[in-house]
Amino acid sequence: MAVRTGTRSAGAVAQATALGVVIEIPSPLDASLIDWRRRYGGEQAAAVAPHVTLVSGSTTDWDCAAAHVRDVASRTSVFTVCLRGTGTFRPISPVVFLNVTEGAEECGNLHDALVAGPLLHELTHGYHPHLTIAHEVEEAAMDRAQEELRGASMDFVVQKIGLFGMDSTGAWSRREELGLDGPTL
Question: Does the first or last residue of the chain, that is N or C, have fewer Cβ atoms within 10 Å of its Cβ?
Answer without folding.
Answer: C
